[in-house]
Amino acid sequence: MMQKRTMEIGVGVFVAAGIAALIMLAMKVSNLAAFTNQQGYEVTARFENIGGLKERSAVTVAGVRIGRVKSIVFDDKDYEAVVTMNIEAQHDRLPADTSASILTAGLLGEQYVALEPGGDEAFLKAGGDIKLTQSAIILEKMVGQFLFDKAAGGDGKKEEGAVP
Amino acid sequence: MMDWLQRLGSTSLSVFERLGRGNLFLLRILAALPSLVARPGLVIAQLYSVGVLSMMLIVISGLNVGMVLGLQGYNTLVDFGSEESLGQLVALSLVRELGPVVAALLFAGRAGSALTAEIGLMKATEQLSGMEMMAVDPLKRVIAPRFIAGIISMPLLAAMFSAVGVLGGFFVGVGLLGVDSGAFWSQMQSKVDLYDDILNGVIKSIVFGFVAAWIAVFEGYDAAPSTEGVSRATTRTVVHTAFAVLGLDFILTALMFGDE
Asked: What's the predicted TM-score (pTM) here?
């Protein structure tokens, strides 16, 4: 009888350890914590080019993450990308003239949406639209532009006195 | 030439015959499963010998694999100045691939071979026939509990393997090599997804557990009732499980992570 008891205790320890490992993987290793407060409100923004933005990319204000990109769809009327963002419910005091730009974390990092609060007294509501947007900076385009400017640089400066 | 063709034909026929027997056997096991609800004690006894006794092996291997991943990953990542991604590297490789696969291979060696040998010997010593004589269905009494214990243990063992491996990577990366501990965890948490990575890993390990347990009990039940037959069946269990797990792993990976 005693032997059966130790055996059952062993199985209990085994199952508990397995479940504990699963919970540790879920809570400590994965991004479950970021998922739990899913309730929030949605705002949309239209971008000419979203670069490498993906669903579930971060949405930040002042560098602090306050939400995630929920979906990205292409609008074939205006040829623009419509980005729907889910903002956490407690951050409901974003001014209506908030602007959104797509930035890159570091030189080669992930792209994210940075919101810049404006000065409007009214706040963004659920389903609201962010009017002022700035597209992602495409590195290749920038390099191309730079090379083009460099090539045209000599006489460009003389004629227009443009900034270098 | 004719001899060669005949040999080819008989080999393929016997392969298909075994496959068919294996599948019919699986159906019979599945049909026997409901009877276990009335006798959970049988499953618990098997969980002990299949799961609990494999736990130590899995934990120690997981710790070592995690530590090695930490060391090797650090050496590569430090060249790019991105050693903070070490947590992500260790966690993703363990949760997606190494946890389920290595745990399944160890499981086949530790528990699968024991299952085959046990059932094969029961058959060789005519214990299974004896049960039938006493109107006890050996499928319900012997095979089904071992099968279901394998399926239950495998995901738990794989989760332990991954969790301990992440801790091993943490000890080496943060404790030994001086990676920032906050960056280690936050990089890991930002890149490891609960559904895409962890849940898929668990699904993988359940599939592997199913296959490993199926092969183990089938080889035992199908073994030639002799000392030699049991030894051959035990070898086949380990070899076939390894093939099946690695092959299935490729298919599952292609299905789960192929469209990223």
From this structure: 0.73
